Amino acid sequence: MENATLHSDPHYDQEASKLGMWLFIFTELLLFGGLFLVYSIYRFLNPEAFKLAGEELNLTIGAINTVILLVSSMTIAMSTSALQKQNKGLTIFLLEVTVMLALIFLINKYFEWGVKFEHGIWPGSQHLINDMSKGEILFFGLYFVMTGLHALHIIVGMVIIIVALNKVQKGTVNAGRPSLLENAGLYWHLVDLIWIFLFPLFYLIH
Amino acid sequence: MEKEKHHIVPYKVYFYILITLIILTFMSIGITKINLGGYSVLGAMIFSTIKSVLVLTWFMHLKFDQPLIRFMVGFVALLFFAITFITFLDYYFR
Amino acid sequence: MQTAAQIPHEANYLEYKGKYKGIFAWIFSTDHKRIALLYLYSMMTMFAVGVLLGLAMKLELIAPGRTIMGPQSYNAVFTVHGVIMIFMIVIPGLPAVFGNFMLPIMIGAKDVAFPKVNLLSWYFYVLGAILVISSVLFGNGIPDTGWTFYAPYSFKTGTNLLPAIFGAFVLGFSSILTGLNFIVTIHRMRAPGMTWFKMPLFPWSLYGTAWIQLLATPVVGITLVLVALERIFGIGVFDPTLGGDPVLYQHLFWIYSHPAVYVMILPAMGAISEIIPTFSQKHIFGYKAIIASTLAIAFVGYFVWGHHMFTSGMSGTAQYTFSILTFIVAIPSAIKVFNWISTMHKGSINPDIPFLWAVTFIFVFMIGGFSGLVLGALATNVYVHDTAFVVAHFHFIVFGGVGFAFFGAIHYWYPKMFGRMYDKAWAKMGWAFFTVGFLTLYSPMFYLGMMGMPRRYYDYLPEFHAANILSTLGSWVMTFGLLIIVINLFRSAKNGAIAPINPWNGKTLEWTVPSPPPVENFDEIPVYGEKDGPYNY
Question: Chains B and C: how many Cβ contacts under 8 Å?
Fold first, then answer.
């Protein structure tokens, strides 16, 4: 552990900013962790029902969404390098691509959920309660909560990236003061990480 | 610590990581064709873990950051697993 | 942020005039010292409400049968009492007031790492409090689930639970952000030369606490969200009719709420670890052992939550695992008590007010701790679970622990914070009445619990009457003591004698700055040399 050091600009400590962001990421990991814990218990208790319910989900859309998020993680990571190389134009372009990919993810999710609703599947629906086993009810309950909370984080992430994009445009976020963009990147990777676990748990149960 | 600021990760490194991630994703889909029984969750989780380690190490810069943060990430992960394990002591032995 | 040249040299943080005027100079201030006082005043307000609710309960229990309220009201009163006391008083507790005020000064910094986030934490506190209050004032009935919000009742009750749940969630956010801020502050802003093992014990305790605030709170956050979703949509996750397990709710709830009690007690112990060396004029005994114990409590404390659930239907394996771990976590606390007493041994004792609080803290904390062992052992737990014994246990250890430490801390740091000394005679009287009242209020509950009186009941069997009368009388004596303490502190802020810079001859950095401190704490950041350190008597 290092000693505290004085910095030339006493009000900008990049390491502190990064540490703070990581600590916030830990809270998000534990937040979703609670849901993963619930999922793992109920899957343990209802293995067949979870398998059955999992077949309702569209693997193709899930896989596409997974690739979309992975690519968007790459683009935002590249944008931090671009910022360091003082290539403002490329930085902005990469951030715009990231936002576009996020939007496509959300649109896919919208259609996915729409299909479920058309089939009469939503939390508390009659079809769910009357026709499905308890394990299936739990599966879909967790599906909507976890992908819903994840989608909420995608929206928040998009807002953060747009703010960062704006500030890069204005020049207030630059190679000497990159924290906002780097932290936005960390947040976005977190969103990707969560999906990396959501995808197999919901779409790959066979 | 100051070194980190000057180390800029080349674009192609990020690209190679992405390709690896996509390959792992398709592998994880492919593995579902094999019947692993009770171990299918474990199989899926192994792939997810490898993918997340890649994201953490390169995309999230942990490889180039101070070891303290790596330690903290490891600690948080272990804590979560310990809590999950203990909770299962209830359900597994009921 | 203004430069040193612009800030008038003598302006202390209370008098300082900046961009904003009047009340806005306080509620828009990012000065950690002002934020600490904002927390102090808002917490005192909510504490008063919590105390009144407690008094109402005791008044109901002064006789069997209905005294002043019926069962539904009683359920509501103990619910709101618990929500306020837990989420708005003892969890923010010492970190929000003394952590905010003293941490930067004690490590030689000008403020915390993220001053604006610090103010945001307080805004979340106020918002959370408003939400909880709104659940009482509006809607279909005051929440009646207990502060523990157990499923399935929490999603079946017709009372106005959603604002209370949402309020608790927002209060959790306040806690998380405070923890985050303190961790970064301690990592990045210690004065030059202040290595980790030259940092005083109160900051160390805040560090351990901050990690718990950070990592445990999100779990209750998501659990409360799930209860809200269960209420609104019926997702089934805790509803047995839909396949859910209510015991899983209990697991998730206590995975946070047990570590939460270490959020409560670690800073309290940290304050005691500051008071005792100062009032013994001696170096703390076992400085590193106390640090190790702090971290051990924080760590092991994550794994004992099931001891709240021994009778819930958990597997036998889980039961005895949690029981063993519970006994293990008691050990570091005992180490601390040993170290405090050893510090006093052959010290030059100054039996002034803060020391009185510290000694009675040790006494009531030990009683609370020992009763915890009764609860942690499976055989005896079955007998006293959900009885008044449990109520006695947690009031001794939480109210006794956090409360006595808080009063000790306020009497210790008051001259530094306000630049005045309080009246010592009144302070001693307040302490005496409070302590006697506290013991009279809660001790009978151990007996009552062992004799079989259930908790959370508005009524009881006639054979419990005498002990209940004694307990209720104790509540009045204790409240009388509280009033003396609070009024004394209030009046002394205006009328007290001007306090010197170091009235107790303390050796930590806060005693080197003026009373009250200037806005930026230090004219020059102190530098710690080889020979420097806290407790260098």
Answer: 37
- Which whole-number Å values give the CA distances from C78 to C138, C250, C394, C449, C452, in the listed order? 18, 19, 14, 17, 19
Give A-chain residues touching B11 at CB under 8 angstroms.
78, 81-82
Residues of B in contact with A189 (CB under 8 A): 55-56, 59-60
Q: By the 8 A CB rule, do C375 and C319 touch? A: no
Q: Among B45, B55, B91, select the one facing A73 at the smallest CB separation.
A: B55
Residue of B nearest to A79 (CA): B11
Read off the pLDDT of residues C40-61 as tens digits, 9 standing for 90 and up.
Answer: 999 999 999 999 999 999 999 9
Helix (H, G, I), strand (E, B) or coil at A84: helix
Task: For A144-186, write each residue's pLDDT tens digit.
Answer: 999 999 999 999 999 999 999 999 999 999 999 999 999 999 9
CATH of range A35-203; options 3.90.600.10, 2.40.10.500, 3.40.50.1980, 1.20.120.80: 1.20.120.80
Backbone angles phi, psi at C498, to 5 degrees: -60, 135
Q: Which residues on chain C are in Cβ contact (under 8 Å) with A45?
A: 245
Please give the domain boundaries of chain C with CATH numbers for all domains.
32-512 (1.20.210.10)
Question: Are C64 and C125 in contact, with CB atoms under 8 Å apart?
Answer: no
Average pLDDT score, chain C = 96
- Does B82 reach chain C within 8 Å, measured CB to CB? yes
Tokens of C58: 């005791």
Please tell me the predicted confidence (pLDDT) of residue C532.
87
Q: Which residues of A touch C243 (CB under 8 A)?
A: 42, 46, 133-135, 137-138
Question: Does B45 reach chain C within 8 Å, measured CB to CB?
Answer: no
- Decide if C498 contacts C486 (C-beta within 8 A): no
Cβ contacts from A onto C, under 8 A: 119
pLDDT at residue A58 in the model: 94
**pLDDT tens digits along C139-192:** 889 999 999 999 999 999 999 999 999 999 999 999 999 999 999 999 999 999
Domain boundaries, chain A: 35-203
Residues of chain C with pLDDT under 50: 1-8
Query: If contacts are CB pairs under 8 Å, which of residues 114-143 in chain C contact chain A?
Result: 114, 117
Which residues sit opposite C420 in a β-bridge? C498
Answer whether A81 sits within 8 Å of B29, measured CB to CB: no
